[in-house]
Specification:
With 211 residues, the protein is mostly helical. It has 2 domains: 99 residues, no CATH class; 53 residues. It is built from 8 helices and 5 strands, in the order βββαααααββααα. A hairpin with a 6-residue loop joins β2 and β3. Bound molecules: zinc ion. The site of zinc ion has 8 residues, from α2.
Length: 211
């Protein structure tokens, strides 16, 4: 083989009961791989042709090899760069949908006010059990921001105990997760220890047989 020729990583396997050799190309950019099984006589030139026919770019060294997908992104940069603007558009769409274009009018203000009088206890207690800005908003079909504004301006803040109980709820969820993790590890450890005892027993049986 001339030194200027490209070589590929060779792999072996058994195909229909016979060993065979293949040349593997791996994309230098992503992890894509392709194998050429030449059938008779492994030849890097044939393999190179094979890969090129499949749309690969074969460089001077393995690191310069590119799979068809990565090549597509290089030769057609719009394919690669068109994605971020789409994401931005999506983000804008999402912001638009979470921001209600309606204006907070007198009627809505009155409606929210009446509801808050119903479900907001006082500044010390905050909302009655089970009520939040979000729930009031959902109940009335108005943006949560409106509820937050009116509650803040006319009733009071979210009581400290509401925040604490929210933290407590989250903590309970985390605790449950941790506990189930511990349970899982304990079970695994028990079965590993059992396997360990079996191995030790087998080892002593075998060493006795050897004596
Ligand atoms: Zn690639």
């Amino acid at each position: 083989m001339r030194s200027s020729e490209r070589s590929f990583t060779q792999i072996k396997d058994i195909h229909r009961g016979r060993p065979r050799l293949g040349n593997v190309v791996q994309c230098g950019k992503c992890d894509a791989k392709k194998t050429h099984w030449p059938g008779s006589g492994i030849n890097p030139i044939l393999s190179k042709k094979f890969f090129v026919r499949l749309g690969w770019a074969i460089g001077k060294g393995p690191r310069a090899d590119r799979c068809p997908d990565c090549l597509q992104n290089i030769t057609n940069p719009s394919a690669a760069t068109s994605k971020p603007p789409v994401k931005i558009q999506e983000a804008q769409k999402m912001t638009a949908s979470t921001q209600d274009p309606r204006k907070l009018g007198r009627d809505e203000r009155r409606l929210i006010f009446a509801k808050l009088e119903d479900v907001y206890v006082d500044e010390k207690t905050g909302y009655a059990m089970g009520w939040t800005d979000q729930k009031v908003a959902d109940d009335l079909g108005v943006p949560r921001a409106w509820v937050t504004t009116i509650r803040d301006e006319n009733f009071g803040s979210l009581a400290a105990n509401a925040e604490v109980s929210k933290d407590m709820e989250e903590l309970h969820q985390i605790k449950a997760l941790v506990n189930s993790g511990v349970e899982f590890v304990e079970k695994e450890l028990a079965s590993l220890k059992k396997a360990q005892r079996q191995v030790v027993a087998m080892e002593s049986r075998l060493s006795k047989a050897l004596q």
